[in-house]
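Try this one yourself first.
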């Protein structure tokens, strides 16, 4: 069914794990780690007074998708029997004829992610099983570029209109790279590992958005 206003634009939300504003060129960092993101920012709207909500991904996901602030104690996402007196963007879109798909290259049951998203109107959830466990290269799962490449091959087959929400994982400690193709900093210092993985995450989102 078409949305009631007759407009059927598809929506893609990319939530980038641990993306650092302080390492982003368009926000003032001078080392050119984020050329692809900076190009997107120059063609879109870049919010410069935007702050992390909580200290873990389970706080950030509920904040981004539901506008739910980080409160003391456990994240609402991990409170299995908690009431949810708030509405997610996916629930609003579902009521307007959208199919909601959530894609994550890791274990989607971690931190009750699947349970939470199910209550929020997501119809399909794709995880490391879908993207290929043989591609898992480090602690968290399938690297971002593999996830993005697979999504690009299937996105034209999705029923319209759709909301595709992608949660990345590569830009996270222990800051491992799937290969050395983007490695620019060759020592093993913490800052160099962080810089290299920011370069990788930037290249991955650039390939997806191209």
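Now uncover the answer:
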């Amino acid at each position: 069914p078409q949305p009631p206003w007759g407009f059927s634009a598809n929506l893609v939300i990319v939530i980038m794990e641990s993306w650092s504003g302080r390492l982003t060129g368009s926000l003032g960092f001078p080392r050119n780690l984020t050329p692809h993101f900076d190009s997107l920012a120059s063609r879109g709207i870049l919010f410069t007074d935007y702050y992390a909500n909580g200290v873990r991904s389970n706080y950030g996901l509920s904040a981004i998708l539901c506008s739910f602030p980080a409160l003391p104690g456990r994240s609402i996402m991990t409170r299995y029997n908690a009431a949810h007196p708030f509405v997610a963007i996916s629930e609003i879109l579902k009521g307007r004829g959208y199919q909601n798909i959530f894609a994550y290259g890791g274990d989607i049951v971690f931190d009750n992610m699947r349970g939470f998203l199910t209550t929020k109107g997501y119809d399909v959830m794709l995880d490391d099983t879908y993207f290929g466990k043989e591609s898992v290269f480090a602690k968290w799962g399938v690297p971002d570029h593999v996830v993005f490449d697979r999504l690009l091959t299937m996105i034209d087959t999705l029923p319209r209109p759709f909301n595709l929400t992608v949660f990345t994982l590569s830009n996270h400690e222990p800051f491992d790279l799937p290969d050395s193709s983007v490695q620019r900093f060759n020592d093993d210092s913490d800052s160099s590992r962080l810089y290299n993985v920011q370069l990788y995450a930037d290249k991955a989102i650039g390939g997806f958005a191209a």
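Discussion: The chain is about 30% helix and 10% strand. The first strand starts at residue 11 and ends at 15.
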